[in-house]
C-alpha cells in the first residue's frame, strides 16, 4: 500500500518499528477507555500489524507517530464494503487530525480500492469520535446493543455508522 496524504496527517503502512509508539498510545487511559489494553500490549499491537485480514497504517503528524488507523474489506461481491477504526494520542485529540486521517483513508478506499460503502463502529457513548466521523461524512445507522465487552467485563452499546462514496466530505 502506498503512503496516503491528508491535509495535516500522513498515513503509511505501520511496521514493527511502530509497535513501541503505538503501544504507548494504547496504554493511555483516554485510549484504553475505548481500546482494551491487555497484559502484553506490545505483543497485541504486533499481532494486529501482522493480521492478514486487516491493514494498519501509522498516522503521522509533525514528524511523529500519533496513532494508527486500520481497515479491512468484505470482498463478497454481494456485500462488498470496507470498514475502519482509529486511535490517536490523547495529546492531539480535538485538533481535527482524526477527521483528517479518516477522510484520507476513506478517499483511498473509495477512489483506489473501489468501495462504494464504508463502515465504522464507535462505542455509542464516544461522542468525540462520533462527531469526528460525521465531519468526514459518516452517518449513524443504528445502535448495536451490548455490542462490545468493555474493560470492566460488561458489554456496552456500539453505534454502526456508514458512508456512501458520494457522501465523503473531502
Characteristics of this structure?
170 residues, alpha+beta, eight-stranded mixed beta sheet, 5 helices, 8 strands, globular
Descriptive account of the structure:
The chain has 170 residues and is of the alpha+beta class. Helix content is 28%, strand content 34%. It is built from 5 helices and 8 strands; from the N terminus they run ββαααβββαβαββ. The chain has helices at 19-27, 29-32, 41-50, 97-111, 127-136; strands spanning 4-5, 10-13, 54-61, 64-74, 81-88, 117-120, 139-149, 155-164. Strands 1-2-3-4-5-6-8-7 form an 8-stranded mixed sheet, sandwiched between helices. A hairpin with a 4-residue loop joins β1 and β2 (10-13). α1 crosses α3 (41-50) and α4 packs across α5. The longest helix is centred in the middle third of the chain and has 15 residues, at 97-111. The protein is globular, with a radius of gyration of 15 Å. The protein starts with a strand and ends in a 6-residue tail after the last strand.
Tertiary shape: globular
Helix/sheet category: alpha+beta
What is the residue-mean pLDDT, rounded to a whole number? 94
- Number of H- or I-type helical stretches: 5
SSE sequence, one letter per element: EEHHHEEEHEHEE
Number of strands: 8
Sheet having the most strands: 8 strands, mixed
Quick recap of the structure?
The chain is α+β, with helices and mostly antiparallel strands and 170 residues long. The chain has helices at residues 19-27, 29-32, 41-50, 97-111, 127-136; strands at 4-5, 10-13, 54-61, 64-74, 81-88, 117-120, 139-149, 155-164.
Amino acid at each position: 500500500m502506498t503512503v496516503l496524504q491528508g491535509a495535516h496527517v500522513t498515513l503509511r503502512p505501520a511496521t514493527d518499528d511502530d509497535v513501541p509508539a503505538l503501544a504507548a498510545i494504547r496504554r493511555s487511559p483516554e485510549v484504553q477507555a475505548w481500546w482494551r489494553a491487555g497484559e502484553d500490549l506490545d505483543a497485541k499491537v504486533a499481532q494486529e500489524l501482522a493480521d492478514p485480514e486487516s491493514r494498519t497504517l501509522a498516522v503521522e503528524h509533525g514528524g511523529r507517530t500519533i496513532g494508527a488507523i486500520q481497515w479491512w474489506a468484505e470482498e463478497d461481491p454481494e456485500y462488498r464494503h470496507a470498514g475502519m477504526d482509529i486511535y490517536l494520542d490523547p495529546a492531539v485529540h480535538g485538533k481535527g487530525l482524526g477527521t483528517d486521517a479518516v477522510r484520507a483513508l476513506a478517499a483511498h478506499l473509495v477512489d483506489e480500492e473501489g468501495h462504494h460503502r464504508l463502515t465504522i463502529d464507535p462505542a455509542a457513548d464516544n461522542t468525540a469520535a462520533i462527531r469526528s466521523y460525521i465531519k468526514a461524512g459518516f452517518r449513524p445507522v443504528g445502535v448495536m446493543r451490548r455490542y462490545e465487552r468493555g474493560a470492566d467485563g460488561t458489554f456496552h452499546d456500539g453505534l454502526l455508522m456508514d458512508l456512501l462514496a458520494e457522501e465523503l466530505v473531502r
